[in-house]
Amino acid sequence: MLDLRRLQALVAVARTGSVSAAAGELHYGQPTISHHLRRLEAETRTVLVQRAGRGVRLTPDGLALARRAEEILALSQRAEDELLLAAGLRSGLVRLAAFPSAAATLVPAALADLRTSAPGVAIELVEAEPPDAIELVRAGRVDLAVTFTYESGESELLRTETVLADHLYLVEPGDLPIRTARRALRAHRHTSWVAGCERCRAQLVQLCADAGFEPEISFATDDYLAVQALVAHGSLVSILPGLALSVHQHPGVRVTRLPATRQVHVVTYGAPPRPRAVDAVAATLAAAARAVALPSA
Q1: What pTM does this model have?
Q2: Which of 104, 151, 153, 210 is most buried as measured by Cβ atoms within 10 A of its Cβ?
Q3: Measuring CA to CA, which residue among 273, 201, 270, 266 is closest to residue 239?
């Protein structure tokens, strides 16, 4: 059976790219990290680490083992947390990752609910977009995450609960004539668009493609307030999710609901049962999602 400390050393090296940085992260000496790596290679009879300039990099076998090691370490940590929680030795602290518009809408509502429904539970929040939030869950650095997807799909070893169908909206200057969603999209085939980062704009591009054109993207920002200000004052257009608009809608824009949604999920690791504190937070997030008021346009 592989030693958890050696797996921890391998994961730290994979994350930091050097033995010295891994030693600092784990509060070990460099010789200890090197020893753990050598022993792990001996146990697996595989070369896991190679020198690369002043640092090191993992071999393909090393990367494969590091990915599984993250899952093993996360399960081990969760088992320990559950035992301590059952024994009353761990507080009801739940570590949560959420994307920005969920952090501004669902999380505050969940906190308000928890104050009465589970006053012993506290939330520690980190803001993270879905790909990063999923990795935080896998690595055991958060207990659950609020994420979104535009297509259905489940990840191995992750428990995913869909809590909201978040409608998408065309955002355009408020002085333009009112049109149906499809006509409104087609009317902007020659308009400049505001979109998110390269990773985040795929749905916008696809909706425009479905309407028969490729959008001319002139501005890129993931700041929903900036998007609306640019649209209101710059004769631009964009597409935003309802959660973002429920936080704030600029008075100078008009929104039109499109026939598309993104699915908002609460994601945890592994199969039930979950710790009671995590269950409480997941339940309040789901309730907040059911109660959220999306734009009616």
Answers
A1: 0.70
A2: 104
A3: 201
